[in-house]
Specification:
Radius of gyration: 16 Å
CATH class: Alpha Beta
CATH topology: Nucleoside Triphosphate Pyrophosphohydrolase
Strand content: 15-25%
Number of helices: 2
Distance between the termini: 47 Å
Number of domains: 1
Structural class: alpha+beta
Length: 181
């Protein structure tokens, strides 16, 4: 029998949490846009995973997401936003029925002292089915927010892969930030 990680539990109750908070952390890396993937525990079905956990007593969803990023990366994210709720019947590493997805951005200069490794978008195929859906939703949200919020200033020199059917021309921006769509 394989060892499986314990499902997240509500602090103090010992009962499994009815949901998880999952965070997709993006940061510019040498090989392009990176995603933070904490090291999988023994017995995990996937080699990679996203930071996830349950809120502690009195902790809001956003504070939980920020805590998960700090624990995995060792630093505070420069931007974070809720992506949505995922209750699609797809498997999650914790076996929870519901996941609340967040997207976060960290500067490339972050030399994190956390417990995760960086993977490129192309290396994320080994995520659980629900976490893959959350990662896809987070990337879509990031692309959308780049047009409506000053998130691009958090990414010095990074190529964000274009959405399917999107324009692939270079969109010049401020000199400190060159984002290619």
């Amino acid at each position: 029998m394989r060892d499986r990680p314990s499902p997240p539990s509500r602090s103090g109750t010992g009962r499994p949490a009815p949901f998880t908070v999952d965070v997709v952390v993006f940061s510019p890396r040498e090989r392009g846009l990176g995603v933070l993937c904490p090291r999988a525990g023994r017995g995990a079905k996937e080699r990679r995973g996203l930071p996830y956990g349950a809120p502690r007593d009195g902790e809001t969803l956003e504070r939980c997401a920020r805590r998960l990023v700090r624990e995995a990366a060792g630093v505070e994210p420069s931007w974070i936003e809720q992506v949505g709720a995922f209750a699609d019947g797809k498997r999650h590493p914790s076996d929870s029925d519901l996941s609340i997805g967040f997207v976060a951005v960290m500067p490339s200069s972050s030399d994190h002292g956390g417990r995760g490794d960086w993977a490129t978008l192309g290396e994320l195929g080994a995520l659980s089915p629900r976490q893959r859906a959350i990662a896809d939703g987070a990337l879509s949200a990031l692309r959308t927010r780049m047009d409506h919020a000053p998130i691009a200033f958090r990414f010095p020199d990074v190529n964000v892969p274009p959405a399917e059917g999107a324009c692939t021309s270079t969109v010049p921006s401020m000199p400190v930030c060159r984002v290619h769509w």
